[in-house]
Amino acid sequence: MYKYLLSTVGILWHILIFAQGNPLFTGYVFDRQSGLPIENVDVRVLETKYGTTTDDRGFFEFRKLSPGTSTFLFNHIAYFQVKEKIELRPGEKNEVEIYLSPNSTDLAELVVEADNRRTAVISRLPYVQTKIFKQQIEENAVRDIGGLLRGSNNIGGIRKGGGAIDPVVRGFKFSELNVQIDNGLKIEGGCPNRMDPATAQIDPLNVKEIEVLKGPYALRYGTSFGGVINIKTMEIPKNEKFELHIKALQGFESNWNGNKSLINISGGNKKLFFSLTGGQKKYGNYKDGNGKEVKSQFTKQDFGGYFGFKLAKNQSLVLNYKNASGKNTRFPALPMDERLEQTHLTSLDYKAEEIGDFFQSIYVKLYNSDVNHKMDNKYRAVSDTVVAVSDIHAVNRGFRSEGVFGIKSVEFHFGIDFENVLKDGERVKTMIKQYTLPVKTEKLWNKGQIRNLGFFLTYEQNLNDFDLSASVRLDMNQAESDKISVSLPIPGDIYSYGTDSIQSDYTNFSMSLGATYHFTESFSVSLSLGRGVRSPDMTERFIILLPIGYDNFDYLGNPQLEPEANNQADLTLKYKDDRKGVFQFNMFYSFVDNFIIGKRLPPNEQRPISKGVIGVKQFVNGGNARFQGFELGWFSPEKGKPGIQVLASYTYATLDEVQRYVVEAGFPIRDETILNDALPEIPPFESTITVFYPFFKGKLKPEISVRMVAAQNHVSDAFYENTAPGFTIANFLLRYDYNKNFMVSGGVDNIFDKAYYEHLNRNVVGSNISLYEPGRVFYLNLIFRIWQ
Amino acid sequence: MKQIGLFLFAVLLFSACNKEDETVVVQYKASNGYSNTQIKYRDAEGVLVSGNIDFPGGEDVWTYGFDGKKGDIVFISAIYYDSTSSITLQILLDGKIFKEATSNNETDEILTISGTIPYYNE
Lengths: 788, 122
What we know:
CATH topology of chain B: Immunoglobulin-like
CATH architecture of chain B: Sandwich
Structural class of chain A: mainly beta
Oligomer: heterodimer
Radius of gyration of chain A: 26 Å
CATH topology of the largest domain in chain A: Maltoporin, Chain A
Distance between the termini of chain B: 44 Å
Number of domains of chain A: 2
CATH superfamily of the largest domain in chain A: TonB-dependent receptor, beta-barrel domain
Number of strands of chain A: 45
Shape of chain B: elongated
Number of helices of chain B: 1
Strand content of chain B: over 45%
Largest sheet of chain B: 4 strands, antiparallel
CATH class of chain B: Mainly Beta
Number of helices of chain A: 5
Largest sheet of chain A: 22 strands, antiparallel, barrel
């Protein structure tokens, strides 16, 4: 497979040799009153389709403009628009300073947040895109990315402990979601019970932006089945002069007795730049709204950085390394706790932009992620007799390359991506009540390996009233493993045909189509159709008897599983009006064929080996599943006070046919078929209303949000899923920007100390009781920033 | 100067963490025996060691100690063959009793105490 990598890099390099630069136009945009730089100013060249936005230094640049006079429009919702005619002279460096006047003095400091929220509500794509920005992360009580995402429309999370909440987007979860870091780096978590999903490997304080692309439509980023979550941590400076930035954050939380710290030193200019970051989080057990302690403590440390330089005016190379470690993380809803997690993420990014009018840009990313995961059952009752320690090593390495070319209003993205996932691990059991202290070793994975090579092509065109898009993707997927065998209770190989039957090769074709019709400048309707096909993951193919599901069974992998396919349609209405605000309504319907689910094996075929489980299930292609629902978002007008945001969402998901196991005296005795059963772990209807009001030119901003979640009564009979009651909670946040060097935010989550749990929270081990969410939490975040 | 002060404050906050001590003093103790008693215990390297305690020969209390780490398995078992005998086994962590058991006149049962050194102070 590496020959593909070499040939791709070679082809791209040859193209770059012929890349040519263009005239340079740069500038800074400042606030006329305060003199401070303005971030997120939209800068457009009216005679062309080119546009950009300013960074946090107010800086912008253009490289592809032709010499002569061009008209530039500087637009920001908090400022009066400025239109400037500027003459660009060939062979000269053209630099300008633009000053914008606030259009409402009280709104000036607020609008970046407002703009961010609006972006989260509405997007230009024909399907739903949700974004979360670093400001939201810094000012709230955020512990992990999964928990942060739970605040977004139709994104839930599976809580199993204090952290590492596993995201669920419209009911899709685990490998149905394509989670990646910085446009392509993928992580294979070590834990079979997903104590360490990819979203848990990145400190949220390092995140610049999170982008969620819902549905099987964005095929540029790899296989897309239920959606793509792209976590962006890098920011490349655009400034000419060398700058040094230092940022330190310290956060405190009551209830958990939690604290988090981060220090970041970054600097350079657009030719040479770096960023170094270190952080830690230490949280104790929290108390729920009933005052009951939940064993949820965790400690995490992170460090890393990136170093980049310009190879040429339009080419950059960035080397990025991150190290994340966690220890003694408790998961009361899982059979084990995480004892040690050690993750290394390394990537090399090459980018060439503004190559020419036709061939516009190239991007290549090489990456390696390496996860070592150790867990044990030493805080479970069963450890009085058997102490089990599992040690797993997971690697995901690969590359992603993408080229962009365009003709007038048409833009194409094409590329290749490749990933190689390797996983190996074992569980050591020590029988500590037996006189001879016997020790037994069992394989969890036996050198499992999955390789996926993908080719993609996307097309986008903007016509007068129509935006059109289309994507195709071809994936060639190969998997293999060493022999899968168990020692008890029936010694021998599970797959009697040896290693041949453990191999599987698939070729998957995915595609999507999208169209947006702009009825007026304010109102548009989008329709997207897509089919995303994914091959089974490492767990579904090769896991060897572990209780990893929602139910109380040992699960066994199935190398002969077929890929599952999501056939989905999204209809999206968007409306934007200066007086009525921004409105988006989306409906989606998804039909999944070859849906992967567990099916019980008869005891004479395979008995469980884990303590306390009632049987064995093997992953099979279990027929068809259907997901349908809606999302609604409204944001009040830009200039209105107070600012109001309303979000609401719902997903209804069923399986056409599923087996239910009738359990008596703790053992399944027979099967029965259920038609149109609910899928387990689907979040109920919920709605969030957020109101904020800016004071003192936006320096002081109180915000209150009320989240109302309906009861979930549509639950899976086959999985003996519990219903969940509805709840309403209220949160309060106060942010104060003292000056450009110091910001403080504080607040109260769950103001009324409500005792509640999310429907997706797993049950506490050995009980039928869901893990409760934290009770009232007071928090305080201090951020220091220094510019030189 | 003000900025440097702020920065130093931030660094101090960040560096306020200190490394936790993972070491725990483990001590196995066997006492109240009256006859020869065979024992097995898990030593500092995790090896199961067999031994014999000569209580009739004058040994009142047998002890073995080592520096363990949080999460280590601690294990000791004993058996005697004199029906008038007894044995008390203890595992102490940093001087405090972690596990304890006594057997009186039970020659057909192996007395075992075991566990893992706790990670958390609770």
